[in-house]
Amino acid sequence: MADQGLVLVTGATGFVGAAVARAVRAAGFSLRVTARAGSNLSNLAGLEAETVPLDLTNPASFAPALQGCRYLLHVAADYRLWVPDVAAMRRVNIDGTLALLREAARQGVERSVYTSSVAALGLTANGAPADETTEILPAHHVGAYKQSKFDAEQAVRALAASQNIVIVNPSTPVGPGDVKPTPTGQMVLDAARGAMPAYVDTGLNIVHVDDVATGHLLALEKGRAGQAYILGSENLMLRDLLALIARETNRPAPRLRLPIAPLMPIAWVMERIAERTGTPPLMTPDILRMARKTMFFSSAKARTELGYAPRPAQLAVRDALAWFRATGRLS
Hints:
The N and C termini lie far apart (40 Å). Strand 1, helix 1 and strand 2 (30-35) form a beta-alpha-beta unit. Helix 1 (15-26) packs across helix 6 (209-222) and helix 3 (86-106) runs parallel beside helix 4 (144-159). Helices cover 40% and strands 16% of the residues. By secondary structure, the protein is of the alpha/beta class. The protein is built from eleven helices and 13 strands. The protein has a domain at 6-174 and 207-233 and 297-310: NAD(P)-binding Rossmann-like Domain (Rossmann fold, 3-Layer(aba) Sandwich), CATH 3.40.50.720.
């Protein structure tokens, strides 16, 4: 296969970034990936790639990483549902992103794909699947992470007026390689271990992480500059997702539905404890406020314009569980 040029993938030590990096290499590109000092490099094992340092809070690290690259896939982000320092998250997700994309243009990068999130999009009032055109209201962006991704995407959209940038909005990725794990991966693990006997009445869109990676390549090849594309798959209520995990692990599905309002005081106390200890809390008021919304999305635009064809959620869960078992995270 002929070399199609050098691609820089940021965040390749992480869950989505590693999947994107593997897809880029499989497509015949030369690959350069970024890693911060002290990063867990296990997701890069066996991957033919040049690894370079890059810190999104240090713009001086951008030019050397981008030099000679044809394309940039900017996947790296600070993804935490609770942070002790909101300003630090914003410096990475907003300031670092814009500075990196501007440097990419200065270095002659032909096209950049920016990994946003459905967290940056609007939600429908009736719980029907939202899309890229759904009205965005301030109430939709609960918490520091969602607000930072919304602000970042709006700034990237403005930048795309003068640069060749395509935006992708993954929903909730599940699958192999979730090393940290992500909050969703932790939920899958907890449910598989039988540690989630109850649920709240919320919904989310589940997508296989490898389909998200394929969607990045499709956006690079076929996406329209300045446009955003939702990369999701199947909309599921949380109770149905937990039932799916239960079937895959031969456990009984949780039957207890918890009302959100009585959990608020507990979440408030957990957050106060976290502020003193620095340990992320199991619940926060913002997490519960998010759970009140049904976060369903449509990938119709990506299917039509990019040829995006994601697999069912069951396969994403099955592959995640197999990887957790294979790596000793799930006995």
